[in-house]
Write a structure and sequence with these properties.
Helix content is about 35%, strand content about 25%. The protein is an alpha/beta fold.
Length: about 240
């Protein structure tokens, strides 16, 4: 695969986007990779490259582009606002749809941690997405922008299948929060499969942190990739299963 960086204009500023493209000729499905709190770092690049290995063009925008260069990612994360994130997501989607080798009918979204919440925002504000992967996303029950509802309040806007991965030792989202989300998805008829792991907490898939849990991570990766392959590459029906 080939990786490159492109720059998009968003709100009068410049947003860099890491793009990982399959080697084979298109047209390809595409996926927006919403970065975790570490930003577009080695972990996010690894996610994008794994997705691209399926034959899916992956694009990871830098949602911290409004912040000073070199700022600690945790500090940058605290300044994110939902309205600006939606603008960044929409700009990335427009970029993907402008590429001649991208299928407009097969665009998905993937997010870990902060990126899981960002992916949820994408689903409820943009109807383009045909599949979504959420990993241990928190704070969907709260708004992070004046005048905007919490993402959870707009769950009825989701019209694509969703797969989620969670740690039972996590506090945000806690198992109770995951169960609340599963009940709402079931009530609304949103096709979903949630996988929860004992002995794992937040960020269990990130092997650069003490939270990494090898067994949970190794179980989640093939499920995540198979879901994207089935829903975006082959457009197969997704079974309405939930843990």
């Amino acid at each position: 695969m080939a990786t490159r960086e492109t720059i998009l204009s968003v709100g009068g500023g410049a947003m860099s986007v890491l793009v990982a493209a399959p080697d084979a000729p298109g047209p390809h499905p595409a996926a927006l990779i919403a970065h975790h709190r570490g930003g577009v770092d080695g972990f996010t690049r690894n996610v994008a490259e794994r997705v691209a290995s399926l034959g899916i063009l992956a694009a990871a925008p830098n949602f911290y582009h409004r912040r000073p260069a070199g700022e600690d990612p945790v500090a940058s994360m605290r300044h994110l606002r939902d309205g600006e994130l939606v603008d960044d997501i929409n700009a990335t989607v427009r970029y993907l749809l402008s590429l001649p080798d991208v299928r407009s009918d097969a665009v998905g979204i993937v997010g870990h941690c902060l990126g899981g919440r960002t992916a949820y925002l994408g689903m409820v504000w943009n109807p383009i997405f045909k599949a979504a992967v959420l990993l241990y996303h928190g704070n969907i029950f709260e708004s992070r922008a004046e005048g905007m509802p919490p993402p959870f309040a707009l769950t009825s806007n989701i019209h694509c299948p969703v797969i989620g991965f969670f740690g039972n030792d996590d506090h945000n989202p806690s198992p109770e929060m995951v169960q609340r989300l599963a009940r709402e998805f079931s009530r609304l008829g949103i096709r979903h499969a949630f996988h929860s792991y004992d002995g794992a907490g937040h960020a269990f898939q990130d092997d650069a942190t003490p939270n990494y849990r090898e067994a949970a991570a190794k179980d989640a990766w093939p499920k995540l990739l198979a879901f994207l392959s089935n829903t975006l590459c082959r457009s197969e029906a997704f079974p309405p299963l939930a843990d």
